[in-house]
Structure formats: structure tokens, C-alpha cells
Specification:
Distance between the termini: 40 Å
Low-confidence stretches: none
Largest sheet: 7 strands, parallel
Shape: globular
Number of helices: 8
Bound molecules: nicotinamide-adenine-dinucleotide
CATH superfamily: NAD(P)-binding Rossmann-like Domain
CATH architecture: 3-Layer(aba) Sandwich
Radius of gyration: 17 Å
């Protein structure tokens, strides 16, 4: 018996990194997973991998920053599989830049994917999740808990994800649904491997958020997400769980 047997989980960003690891973790724990990502080829590869492990993942290709795509992904997941129990909002983007280099387009995209994407999926999913006493796990970041130099737009977006999680938890305090978030530190994923910093920066400002430990494996974050999404975490609601090797502890 798996802890998600009979449950359906919609996971955004499932084509890569933490989303991929979460899809694999939850599918091997019995969930029927619907991966929602803009990367169709990546989703197909993850679905094949999960099938070889004996699990099921279907795909929804779209852009989380577009409300219509989120509504389509949620309604299709529920229509195809008969229910929706868990939403994990993992899809995100990051880049570093000086404040003076931030464009209107870049600012809007950063908030559109990281913040609006999580909100539109939550808005569409909540009525279905409430039917099944389900839950939402948002993926924030250490950057949402502390201010980070050279990633001001990202830090702003992830701070918004943290407080969106709390505000949703309060508005739905009397409904049978749980809403929580994880805040990972550095994770060894395509996102962090492709991350570059501007050349002309003050490294003493960056050192404050590097921490003392190695990067986490995506599976280490996925394990915490899966725990929060499971019945074992039945009392957790409105929590922001750091998974950062102590980076934000002091
Ligand atoms: N990697 C880290 O060090 C780290 C640290 C803290 C928080 N996070 C957060 O964890 C989440 C996952 O990060 P990751 O490291 O797995 O990154 P990743 O780049 O490996 O994966 C992100 C996935 O999101 C998808 N995506 C991006 N924009 C999208 C959009 N508009 N619509 C649909 N899908 C979209 C990508 O196609 C990709 O599959 C992100 O929210 C990120 O901010 C990552």
C-alpha cells in the first residue's frame, strides 16, 4: 500500500528538478500524477521514467503564468482521473541581475510564473481539493524568507509565495483543505546549474546566503513535499517549512 493510493496529484514544473523528483516520489507512493509544465519533451521523459517504475503520470502542457492554462490543467486532471487531491506548485524561474538592469518585462515574468502561476492553480484547484480533504504544497525558497542581493525580483516573488500560503491558509481556515509551503535552499537541479551572477558584484553580499552545506538533491526536497502532502502531516496548515540545511537558521 502506498500513502497516496487512490489519490490524484497535479504537480507543476514536473519536467525537471524538484518537480520531477516530486512526481517520481508521489507516483511511486501510489498517486496518479498529472505533470503540468511548459516543457512537453521533459514531461514525456518523466512520464516514461515513472511508467518504468510502475507508476502513472499524464501530462498537461502549458504556461502556469496564464490563468486559462492553469484552469485547463486542473479541470483536465480532474476529468481524466475523476478527482483531485493534491496540488504541488513547483514551477518557477530565477535569474540574477542588478536592480538597475531589471526590466518591466523581466519583473512581470518573474512574478507571473512564481507568484501568479501558484495562485491561478490554487484558485482553480481549491473547490476540487476541498471535496476530498486535499491539500496544496507551494514551493517558495530561502530567498522568500531573507532578503537576497542581486535577486531582488526573485526574492520578492518567493516572499509573496510565502505570504500567499499563509493568507490562503487563513481564508480557508474553516474548510477541509490544508495549504503549506516548503522553502528550499540551494538544490542541485538544472535551475541552479544554469544560474549565473553578474560579473561586477560585491561577493560579501552574496556570501550571506550561500550557507555552509552542499546543495541538496531534488529528492531531499521531494521527500519533504510528499510528507506534507500526505495524511501523516494532517495537522500542518499554513506552515512554511525550511529545507535549506540551516541556511536561514541564523
Ligand atoms: N534549484 C534551487 O536551488 C532552488 C532553491 C529554492 C527554491 N527553488 C524553487 O523550486 C522550484 C523548482 O526549481 P528547480 O530547481 O526544480 O528548477 P528547474 O528549472 O529544474 O525546473 C523548473 C520547472 O518549471 C518549469 N517552468 C518554468 N516556467 C514555467 C511556466 N511558465 N509554465 C510551466 N512550467 C514552467 C520548467 O519548464 C521546469 O520544468 C522553483 O519554484 C524554484 O524557484 C529552487
Amino acid at each position: 500500500m502506498g500513502r497516496f493510493d487512490g489519490r490524484v496529484a497535479l504537480i507543476t514544473g514536473a519536467a525537471s528538478g524538484i518537480g520531477h523528483a516530486t512526481a517520481t516520489r508521489m507516483a511511486t507512493d501510489g498517486a496518479i500524477v498529472v505533470g503540468f509544465d511548459r516543457d512537453a519533451d521533459g514531461l514525456a521523459a518523466v512520464a516514461d521514467e515513472i511508467a518504468t517504475l510502475g507508476g502513472v503520470m499524464t501530462s498537461a502542457v502549458g504556461d502556469v503564468a496564464k490563468r486559462e492554462d492553469c484552469i485547463t490543467a486542473v479541470t483536465t486532471a480532474a476529468a481524466d482521473h475523476g478527482r483531485l487531491d493534491v496540488l504541488v506548485n513547483v514551477a518557477g524561474v530565477v535569474w540574477a541581475e542588478h536592480v538597475s538592469d531589471t526590466t518591466e518585462e523581466g519583473w512581470n515574468r518573474m512574478l507571473g510564473v512564481n507568484v501568479s502561476g501558484s495562485f491561478w492553480c490554487a484558485q482553480a484547484a481549491l473547490p476540487l481539493l476541498i471535496e476530498n480533504q486535499g491539500n496544496i504544497v507551494n514551493v517558495a525558497s530561502n530567498a522568500g524568507l531573507i532578503g537576497q542581493a542581486y535577486t531582488v525580483a526573485y526574492s520578492t516573488a518567493k516572499g509573496a509565495v510565502v505570504n500567499m500560503t499563509r493568507a490562503l491558509a487563513m481564508e480557508y481556515a474553516k474548510e477541509p483543505v490544508r495549504i503549506n509551503a516548503v522553502a528550499p535552499g540551494s538544490v542541485d537541479s538544472p535551475m541552479s546549474r544554469n544560474f549565473t551572477m553578474p560579473n561586477d558584484l560585491d561577493w560579501t553580499l552574496v556570501q550571506r546566503y550561500i550557507g555552509f552545506r552542499d546543495m541538496a538533491e531534488p529528492s531531499e526536497v521531494a521527500n519533504v513535499i510528499a510528507f506534507i502532502a500526505s495524511d501523516e502531516a494532517s495537522r500542518m496548515h499554513g506552515a512554511i517549512v525550511s529545507v535549506d540545511g540551516g541556511l536561514t537558521a541564523g
